[in-house]
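Here is one such protein, fold included:

. . .
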Amino acid sequence: MESIEAEEEDTETDITVEDGDLKGRDNPLDPAKIRRKLTPLKDYKFQLELAVKIRIFQSAWTAKYLFQLEPVTLDRIDILEAKLRDIEYELEKTKNNLDDEKRGREIVEEELNEMKDKLADLEKAIVKTNNPKAHERLKAASRNVAELNDKGQLQWNSVKGLGFEPSSGGYGVRVLVAGWYMVNATVYLAPQTVGTSVKLQLNGNYLRSQPAPINGKQNTSVTFAFVTNLKKNDELTIIATDSQVGADLDAFRVGK
C-alpha cells in the first residue's frame, strides 16, 4: 500500500454558502479561517484535524474536529476480488451453458429436419403405393354361352383391364400395348365322354392346345399358363367344344 504524505501546512478550503444571509460582514463562518491538518499515524492510519473559527458580533470561537481515517484492509480487497472472480466464473459458466443449449437446439433442429425429410419420403412412398403406376392387365370372363360361333370360338361376356379391348364382336381380345405377357386361361367343360381339345389362337393361328380330360359324369377344365410376346393389335381367341360352361382369361404385362 502506498504511503500518503501529510501536508502540515495550512490549506485554504473553499466553502460554498447557499444562504444569502451569510454573505458579507454578517457571515459567522469565515472560509479563510477554516484550517485542516492531516497527520500520519501507525498502521497506515491518518488523523484529519479541522479547525473552524466562528465569529458572532464581537465574539469569536474556534471549533476543532478530529477524524481518524483507517485504510481498507487487504483482506477485504481480497474478498472483493474473490467475489468478482466468482461472478466472472458464473458469467463464463452461464455463457458456456447458453452456448451448449444453443448447440443442443441446433442439433435438435437438424434431427427434426432429417425426420421431416424422412416423413416426406415416406409420404411419397405411401402415395406411390396407393397410386401405383398402371400396368397392362386383362381379366376376361365367358359364362354359359348357349352355342359357339361357326369357328367354335368362345364369346367373352366381359373384358376388363388396362391395355386390352374386346374384338371380333366379343369373340376375341385385342392387345393395345406390346410387350411380354403372362397369360393364364381356364376353360370349364361339362363332363366329357369323347376325346376333345381346347385351343388358344393368336390372330387366328394356333398358339397352344390342351386335351380335355375324360372323367365320366364330372365337370372338368382345361388350363393354359405361359409367357409370350404380344404385339400391338394382336388378338387372342379360344376354340372350345359345345360342352363348355364358361372360361376365364387373365393376362398381365411383365417388365417395362
